[in-house]
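>> Question from a student workshop board

For tomorrow's exercise we were told to take the sequence and the ligand below, predict the bound structure, and bring the output to class. My setup keeps failing. Could a helper post the expected result so I can at least see what it should look like? The ligand is zinc ion.
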Amino acid sequence: MEIVTIPYQGRFRGNRKIEYVYNNIENIINEAAGKVISASGGLVRLTDDVLHFGFTDMGTCVPFFTPSAISRCILPFRPGKGACSTYILLMGTEAFLSDYLGRTTFDKMLVHEMTHKLLMMNWPNHNKLPLYIIEGIAIETAGQGDDIIRTYRRHPFRMPRPPMHLYPYAVVKFRERFGGLPLPEVYREIGRLQSSL
Ligand SMILES: [Zn+2]
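>> Workshop helper replied:
Here is what the output should look like for this input. Compare the format with yours to find the bug.
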């Protein structure tokens, strides 16, 4: 897999944390991909594909109320209607820089988006599955589920309007359907579901 980084600009230039990510991008991406691959029990793999990785200076576009709201800061960028995502675009760089967004949360965001990316690489049909499955598997692979539920229970009024509510909804629905199954089994089931579409 080839990794292409999009140069960042603006007020984040020269920031040490971003420099660190840029200088270690290959390792950081591979580490996130490794977590997804192992969660899937080896069912999904990195295929020969190009990954564009970029920072944007768009922090104000995303409302930052809670750490789990920040999990929306990295969004898979779809460069065309229905096109497979070949980008992981880091948005909301401000949140990334803030004190309460530590490496763990950043790593979880990356694993979440990497799950979307790897599923798109391996199972193009998975995009036709219900959204709660698409988001649920990314959330659970990244280990964000409990945090999302906890935050939502504590601050439902602070969670931004839908589609943000999609996240707690996805966790609940996903756990209802797959709860108790080990993740590799869930991946196997999702693979079966998407191949039947
Ligand atoms: Zn997602």
